[in-house]
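ok so for the tutorial part 2 we go from a plain amino acid sequence to predicted structure tokens. step 1 is just haveing the sequence, like this:
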Amino acid sequence: MNMSVEDTHSDFNNLVPKFLSGELTPDENRLFREILRQDPGKQVLVDEYRKIWDSVGSVANRESYDLDAEWEIMREKLPETGLLPRTSTRSILFYTIRIAAVLLVGLIFSFAWIYTARMVGTEKVIAENEPMEVVLDDGTQVTVNRQSKIRYKKKFSESERKIYLDGEAWFDVTRDTSRPFVIDAGTVLVEVLGTSFNVNAYKENPTVEITVETGVVALTAKQDHQEQVVLRAGNSGTYNQESRQLKLIQSSNPNSISWKTRELYFDHSSLQEVADLINSVYNTNLVIMNRELAACPITVTFRDQSLEAVLNVLEMTLDLDITRAGDQIRLDGAGCVE
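step 2 — the prediction. this is what the tokens look like for a chain of 338 residues:
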């Protein structure tokens, strides 16, 4: 592994704090060890930083730290390069350590204060394999979809109700004209007074989508607060995170909240489209075994039916052969003729 002096210096500075806190990944640990192997002098610095790091947690012992003695020991360990004068380098080291200690203590207390100020009184809801329902301080009802999470204050402020969303959730917001309800969904802000709507903002999806059932919703791009679309009942709004474009869609997808209601509507939809939505709603793994079958159209409506009932309807409608193999539910058959 060949690294330039500039590269190793930059990497070393970035990796030292993670090394001291025990947070190096295996790859980072290998890189860090290689840097120390190539430059033994950096190990001396690591040892000195370790003393500073440890001293933060043991202030009572700080007076016993003998900088003169430590400097003499360090001089003996350093290579004889002639680049370390006894007086000036020691003085530089002295002030460097003092400044580093002050900065370190300051950073620790600053981050601790910021973290405490932000997180005290904060609730987190994380839905993993099943949707979760929660009622907020103002009576707003939220259903959090799988692989999604929300964060919010236990007690909203007098001027605003704000919640942070990572993933997808359904909101039925209690009306309060004096306190807007704001959802921070990463790249967009959703603001309402009182309404019901769905926000799909999974990070891996290129598009954030909002579907409004009742009321009015304002969708704003965080990159440019001048860009905003107003959505009303029956509308959808999207924000493309790559092109940074907002779009108003007059008629919303009837299946946008199927994950919550388990109501699925298909009108001449391909079996592949049907299987994809069932997989999303029921958290299952339907696999279509041949291309001809995947294209077969089907018109059907499911209203809060069990997975078995849904599969039975598909089996009879398209004359399918349904088998299970591990976590897969395999759909096979001869296909169809238009």
